[in-house]
């Protein structure tokens, strides 16, 4: 679970985390203790996740302008009704609607992503290799042959280590 999740209803710290799979889609709701009790979450027979989800931040506020995606024509009313976006451009068009929902659902609104450790080490090695090759080229152009030999040896060592790693995998 992400840290510092807020209740989907009152923005207090969430202590109850519900997950349900409906039509092969994962639906998550985070609640504070008081909202969980008020919604009947502690009583499995009296709890309906669908009722809880229908009260999310996708309800329109009075005086809010109607937004329409310029690419696919999806309106904010259609988005609220279906809960789905029509195309990639919708993410930019519906930022005013999406930001509060994402803030309620996640610990942040910026996707940071993850890079597998082996891919990260390869990226680092490739970047270092490129830097050393550039430095080698400069050293040759400046006729700094001792520095060029040092860079050549470092490049050779990195390439050998990469080959050894490829053989192991």
From TrEMBL:
Database matches in Pfam families: UVR (PF02151)
Bilayer-spanning residue ranges: none
PROSITE patterns, per the entry: UVR
Top-level taxon of the source organism: Bacteria
Keyword S-adenosyl-L-methionine included in the entry's annotation: no
Keywords of the record: DNA damage, SOS response
Domain UVR: 126-161
PANTHER family recorded: PROTEIN-ARGININE KINASE ACTIVATOR PROTEIN (PTHR38430:SF1)
Entry protein name: UvrB/UvrC motif-containing protein
């Amino acid at each position: 679970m992400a840290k510092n999740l807020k209740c989907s209803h009152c923005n207090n710290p969430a202590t109850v985390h519900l997950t349900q799979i409906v039509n092969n889609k994962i639906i998550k709701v985070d609640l504070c203790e008081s909202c969980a009790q008020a919604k009947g979450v502690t009583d499995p027979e009296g709890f309906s996740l669908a009722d809880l989800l229908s009260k999310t931040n996708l309800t329109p506020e009075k005086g809010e302008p109607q937004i329409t995606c310029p690419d696919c024509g999806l309106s904010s009313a259609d988005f609220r009704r279906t809960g789905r976006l029509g195309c990639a451009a919708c993410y930019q068009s519906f930022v005013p609607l999406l930001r509060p929902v994402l803030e309620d659902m996640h610990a942040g609104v910026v996707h940071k992503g993850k890079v597998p450790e082996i891919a990260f080490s390869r990226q680092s090695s490739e970047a270092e290799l490129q830097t050393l090759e550039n430095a080698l080229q400069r050293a040759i152009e400046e006729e700094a042959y001792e520095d060029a030999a040092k860079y050549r040896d470092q490049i050779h060592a990195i390439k050998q280590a990469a080959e050894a790693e490829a053989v192991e995998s």
